[in-house]
């Protein structure tokens, strides 16, 4: 049976019209105001031919107008193909075409980048949209939970990006799972400095609508501004990735966060143990989490009460979801044995856009194969080790590059690091490291530093100093490019 619910924005604007929805720069916008703005914009989009079920590509910065754009599409049932604004023109063109979008909406800030972009479909510049004479749009009063709300391409860390179909049901259950875990309070305020084009940012917007919660939107991440905003805007929750968290820890210095601040939701990639230890020391309430574009945000989360006893774990699956570890045949394996992480739940995508065969291969009996390796301890806490494709096997021992990278980047003279396996006649493979240094540290010193923190077989056998590590538009390390560098 397919379920329908009232269109989320309509319902929210009806329930709590005057509550502030979003703070951007120096001003609050209520749910009613955002709804009214979105309605006008929806009329304009409709006059441009957008109908229910059409894919519309959007390339936008974090801005209140971008939120209005995303909401207006939801009002008329348009599907937002949300593009990463760090992609190159070629990558953008590929995703726009791949998604069969009928319209491309963007803004001035990208004009230079877009100069070389050739598209078959019409463009709309955000600033030139005139909503004064908008027609009255055919608002979808209800949404079906199986209707696709958004499409987001995966980061393309392991291969070509894939367009993930995210339904209203996926977002609804993701927001519900998060609320059942964190609780919702009248005073909650979620700070969004992560991009709206990532599921990390977009999911904050969906939670704001579903919970009736105020969010503060920043154009980007600036640690000084974040600390000030947490105080002045009475922020209680914030989403971060590792680099943001380590910059915040630095910037905090000896200060502490206000006691009302209750959750630093950390996700997007591996969390180095030394950083988590520092946060425990400084009393920063870090909720480690594991998730991906395919799970519409976090699916596994660790509360701070376990920060010490389960240090390094990503936690347990949220209420509506499940996680298990399986061998290469999809058979579940026992506690403390590592294997592929499989996930299931109503927040998990049903597949990738226009990739039926690939989508089917990704699922076994309703479980999504994540391509990540990890294990569950005897109490069911998940430990994410690394991506299956990046595992190094040395003399029969499994080595996970993320663990070594976490140690390397905890060295004060190392800004960034990447580890891969190099062929070795004795061991099969040995780990080697690519390092971006900020100080004058030498290779021997780095290896000595690692030897005090890592088992002998995990020590990098060679350190290559580089100016920059190859990272994709989501700032994720591209170890496949490191492997190419080694082959040259
Ligand atoms: P692609 O699927 O195209 O290779 P991607 O997997 O990097 O790209 P995302 O959906 O942005 O695209 O990232 C999800 C991935 O991030 C997870 O599959 C996992 O590898 C990594 N990740 C997320 N949370 C954690 C975590 N807590 N620890 C380790 N890795 C994590
Ligand atoms: Mg992935």
From TrEMBL:
Residues 13-353 form the AMP-dependent synthetase/ligase domain. GO terms for molecular function: o-succinylbenzoate-CoA ligase activity. Pfam families: AMP-binding, AMP-binding_C. It catalyses: 2-succinylbenzoate + ATP + CoA = 2-succinylbenzoyl-CoA + AMP + diphosphate. Keywords: ATP-binding, Ligase, Menaquinone biosynthesis, Nucleotide-binding. Pathway: Quinol/quinone metabolism; 1,4-dihydroxy-2-naphthoate biosynthesis; 1,4-dihydroxy-2-naphthoate from chorismate: step 5/7; Quinol/quinone metabolism; menaquinone biosynthesis. Its EC number is 6.2.1.26. Residues 403-476 form the AMP-binding enzyme C-terminal domain. CDD domains: OSB_CoA_lg (cd05912). PROSITE patterns: AMP_BINDING. Converts 2-succinylbenzoate (OSB) to 2-succinylbenzoyl-CoA (OSB-CoA). HAMAP family: MenE (MF_00731). Belongs to the ATP-dependent AMP-binding enzyme family. MenE subfamily. This is 2-succinylbenzoate--CoA ligase. It comes from Anoxybacillus andreesenii.
């Amino acid at each position: 049976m397919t379920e329908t619910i009232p269109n989320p924005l309509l319902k929210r604007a009806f329930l709590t019209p005057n509550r502030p929805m979003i703070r951007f720069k120096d001003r609050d916008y209520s749910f009613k105001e955002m709804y009214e703005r979105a309605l006008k914009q929806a009329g304009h989009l409709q006059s441009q031919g957008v109908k229910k079920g059409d894919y519309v590509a959007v390339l936008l910065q974090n801005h209140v107008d971008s939120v209005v754009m995303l909401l207006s599409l939801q009002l008329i049932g348009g599907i937002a193909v949300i593009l990463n604004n760090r992609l190159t023109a070629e990558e953008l063109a590929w995703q726009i075409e791949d998604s069969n979008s009928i319209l491309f909406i963007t803004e001035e800030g990208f004009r230079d980048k877009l100069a070389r972009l050739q598209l078959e479909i019409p463009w709309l510049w955000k600033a030139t949209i005139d909503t004064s004479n908008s027609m009255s749009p055919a608002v979808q009063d209800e949404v079906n939970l199986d209707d696709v709300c958004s499409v987001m391409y995966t980061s393309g860390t392991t291969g070509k990006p894939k367009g993930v179909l995210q339904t209203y049901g996926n977002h609804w259950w993701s927001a519900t799972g998060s609320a059942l875990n964190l609780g919702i309070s009248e005073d909650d305020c979620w700070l969004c400095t992560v991009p709206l084009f990532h599921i990390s940012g977009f999911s904050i917007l969906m939670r704001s609508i579903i919970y009736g919660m105020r969010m503060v939107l920043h154009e980007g991440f600036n640690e000084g501004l974040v600390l000030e905003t947490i105080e002045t805007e009475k922020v209680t929750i914030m989403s971060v990735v590792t680099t943001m968290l380590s910059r915040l820890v630095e910037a905090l210095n000896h200060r502490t966060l206000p006691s009302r601040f209750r959750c630093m939701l950390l996700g997007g990639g591996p969390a180095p143990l030394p950083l988590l230890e520092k946060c425990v020391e400084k009393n920063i309430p870090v909720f480690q989490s594991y998730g991906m574009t395919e799970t519409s945000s976090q699916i596994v989360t660790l509360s701070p009460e376990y920060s010490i006893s389960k240090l390094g774990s990503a936690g347990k699956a949220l209420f509506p979801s499940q996680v298990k570890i399986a061998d290469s045949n999809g058979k579940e394996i026992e506690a403390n044995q590592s294997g592929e992480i499989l996930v299931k739940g109503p927040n998990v995508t049903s597949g990738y856009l226009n990739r039926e065969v690939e989508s089917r291969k990704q699922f076994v009996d309703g479980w999504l194969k994540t391509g990540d390796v990890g294990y569950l301890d005897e109490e069911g806490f998940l430990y994410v080790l690394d991506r299956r494709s990046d595992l190094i096997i040395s003399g029969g021992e499994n080595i996970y590059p993320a663990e070594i990278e976490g140690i390397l980047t905890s060295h004060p003279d190392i800004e960034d690091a990447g580890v891969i396996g190099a062929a070795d006649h004795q061991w099969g493979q040995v780990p080697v490291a690519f390092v971006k240094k900020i100080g004058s540290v030498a290779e021997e010193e780095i290896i000595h530093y690692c030897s005090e923190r890592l088992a002998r077989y995990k020590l990098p056998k060679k350190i290559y100093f580089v100016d920059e590590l190859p990272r994709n538009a989501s700032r994720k390390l591209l170890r496949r490019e490191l492997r190419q560098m080694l082959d040259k």
